[in-house]
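Recap quiz, item 2
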Amino acid sequence: MEQKPDLKRNRIIIYACLCIIGIAAICVAAWGTGSGTAAGSVTKTPSTTEVIIPEDSSSSITYSSNMQKGGTPPGVYQGLVIKDLNGTFDPALAESWDISADAKVWTFHLVKDASWSDGVPFTCADVKFTNDYMKANNLTLAYVLHDVETVDCPDDNTAVVTLKTSYSGFLDQISRQPGITISPQHIWQNITDPQHYEDNQFIGTGPFVFDQDTAGYVRLLRNDAYYGKKAQVTGVVLKVITNPDSQVLALKNGEVDVVSDITPAVAESLKGEKNIAMYTINDTGAYEVAFNLGQYPSNITAFRKAMSHAVNRDLISSLFGTGRPTETTFLVPSLAGSYVNPADVGMYNYNLTEAREILKSAGFTWDNEGTLLSPDGKAVTLTIPMNTLSSDSNIQKIVSVLKNDWGTLGIKVSTVAYEDKKQYRKAVGANAVFIDSFPVTLHDDADALSDFAVTPLQETNYYNYNNARYNALLDSIHNTADQQAILRMAYQLQDILAEDIPTVPICTSDTIVAYRSDRFTGWDLGPGYYTVTDPRVLTNLTPVQ
Amino acid sequence: MTRNILLRVSVAILFLYFAVALLAPFIAPYGATAIVGAPLQPPDSEHLLGTNNVGQDIFSQLVYGSQVTLIFGFCSALLSVSISTCAGIVLGYYGGSVDEVVCRVLDVLMPIPIFPLLIVLTTFFNPGVVQVSIVMGVLGSIHGIRLIRAPALSLAETPFIEGAKSIGASDLRIMSRHILPNLMPIVTVKFVTASQHFLVMGVGLSFIGLWDTMTVDWGSMIQNAYSGGALSLGLWWWILPPGLAVVGISLALALAGYSLEESFNPRLEVNRI
Amino acid sequence: MIDGQYLLRRIGYSGAAFFVCVSITFFILHLMPGDYITNYLLSLSNTLPKEVVAQFYQQYGLDRPPWEQYLIYIYNILQGQWGYSYQYGLPVFPLIMEKLTWSLVILLPAVLFGIIIGIVLGAWSGWRSGGKKDLALFNFMIVFRAIPEFWWAIMAVWVFAFSLQWFPLGGFSSISVLDSGLDPWDVLYHAILPICLMTSFVATGNYYVMRNSMIAVIGEDYITTARAKGLDEHAVLWNHALKNALLPMVTMTTFQVAGIIMGNVFIETVFSWPGIGLLTTEALTMRDLPLLEGIFLLDALMTIGAMLVADILVSYLDPRIRMGGQ
């Protein structure tokens, strides 16, 4: 009865909806193609002298504050020194420094004309404030300054740091990741809840100042009032591109100016590409087969010795496509330089027959099927724990090679993966062998050898390695500022390691960087651990034309 | 007619996949993780689908990968459907306060987001195929219980069941001999659609790298290729085979599910997992 | 129309469900192996003094027994305090909202269009069920849906962004945002590919349910009667069939709308669109408990709200359900 009007109304509504959807779809399509060409033309001919750098994840450009975690935009904050190649340090906010003979009192001579980006001059008071404030508020990074007793300011341009105990590696500690950057007293003294303070101005002393953070971009501008070498680029834009493939294509399109950490295969494909140049930063990462001496069979020295001849380092590094086998016990030669003891180079040659001989003479036997049996008759099996989060494909390559080689020795190798670092660490403690990967910055000087020590601060190490002579030597290294003595003792430490084999070094890996040669030059600062967002790289860039 | 043909074709495809998974050691020319050549070689007679960035044979990985992916999909589906069938029948048959309480509990559990919860729960175990498929099966059953409970409830009230009760048949007997067979069509369809759903979900989880990256399965193969530069390098033989393998079995399962559903009852509605 | 007492009972029940849901997620999250501090400290150094570690635990309140943490947590959320993220040190709520906004740019239009398209096509297909066109559409939809969404996404990026370069490779906006602010059309241009993909995906799911529901309704006696009475086909479709067939869709679509709060981690991964889905997985791997709790809390709120709305809507549309007491 009353169906007719109802029907009409319904019909009209439906038709109206369909029309709206249709119109919307057409609009979307039209605008899509329209703005597409516009956007394309904008990105293809960048008119500014800003350098655009891709970032892997949005969390890496979500900054909180420099006090809390050190999560700050690159080039905005500075520490006292920056670590350079070969164990030396570049000046930053400290022009020069003196060390007392017992490595306990460090006097830093600060730069004179530095100022914060809001115009307030930088003085020693800021250095003292940073130390005192971090400790008073129990901030996360305060642990880095754990060894610091006091910071005193005899005058505005001198900071005297007194340590609780002698520590020759102090500069290394405050400059390498995460390090300590100096924060402005005039900003932070008014902040009562630094844990939860959201910094949105980032007042620093560095060559760049924070500009804005919008929609997956962060822009830094050149600090024109910077006291040191001023940048030639007017700004730095960080752009989130999560997929490495997309980063490469963005480079080809000219949407970004540089892509770091590309795979060798991609590097190969970029060769001959117009306006794209590449360079390699040697030895940025290193890998080792590490033993847990607390676990069977790694507690048998002969077993470790045999295995040190069963790691095909040439094959592994050829699978990596970059990098080279590491011939020393622990330190990476290209960075540690003279710290490497030449007597310990080349000890772990790959030779399965030799490995077999060593095993045989230590009482190992093989059953009919070729399975390796320990002296007490048990089959030798190994489980290698892996961390799913940090397991880059290089670790997979290593494990695959080990599985093959150790399989021919009669050892069954399996893997078990852990998503969580804590569980992974636990598994490392419960298994005989693990694969360790590390940034080489941690393996570049004598202080790095403390990884194998047992000290009051470090009651155990991952290798479960505890050698009294080793510990004593390391202690004396920390207590002296005499470089010659440090070098001599570092050699002795490496001799001990070569004898005990808590670890077998495998190889290093390189980082390949591709950049637009028609936009900026000056990326390549030589070998070492410079990343493309290192302030020294950014200030070295020159726009082309 | 066409439905019937579709069903047969999809079952044949499924058999093919199972045969490959079972006979993997005989079909695959190399081991799944063995390094057998230079990295990133294009397909040739030695490596049917080329090699990946580690120098492993992609064809062998594809064949071995079927094992993990299939085990994962079907185990979690089996578990999920078994739980929801048992619980659904019991709840539907007894009804009353137990039914009421369980339904309320399910109501409370429903708002918890399944996907992140799944990831959270997998952290309690080593991320392994079996553990994750168990967690997935249990979680997935929550939504299925209601689906089975409703028809079980109406079945329990039919004169046929009342009659069985009156001649003194035990509850267990009634549930297993009378109610379950009547529910078999819906359970079968649910199983097939759940397998498809879980299989794709498992590949997806593996694709976003949430479990053991050393496990060779199609998801991690896609992930490897995707993050290793297969797209920008144009290495189709690296990324396409695992993807197409997933598409193939997913299609076969979906078609089998819909065909079964129609042949049992054109009005059946089981898509909501 | 709506019974006040029913409404009151329903709301009270939702409150209880919310409380239970929040409690369960709290304990599951806190029982998770591993914790943020261990992960974070391991990434810094292997040689941290014990008292430093203990101090961190105390700072984050993780040294207290779980039940005490739980009481503090409940007290805080009742006060509207969602806490601070461990990894960012920022308040949780604004952090979630920022990412959620970006996710909604894709998901809101996708879900709305998906629901409308799905329902319209499904209704049409169901009404014409058995016909050639219906079968063609039906089979197309099955095939489309059977292909995993991340595979569609990878293929779409490969074809449209890598090869044809019609669309950007990802990200929210082009770089002009830094000088001229956010341009909605530019954002739309960046979002159009994922929106289209998600729309098709949502649409196929709704299509299937709507078609089934329509087929079921057509088989009902009253439709047969209406048709037998010689009523106009369209009149039967609009006034009887459609209205009844839409009923099961109400619950489903409200859940879909609520579900967009979790984002879609596959789409976000492939399209470089860092939204709430990626935030969740990242918070999970970092063990950022306050952030996770915030996300789960928001989701529970949305889902329970959606259930409430769906129940009220359905009982409004179909009074029989309320009378039945279910």
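Chain C has a mean pLDDT of 83.
Residues 92-127 of chain C form the longest helix (36 residues).
End of item.
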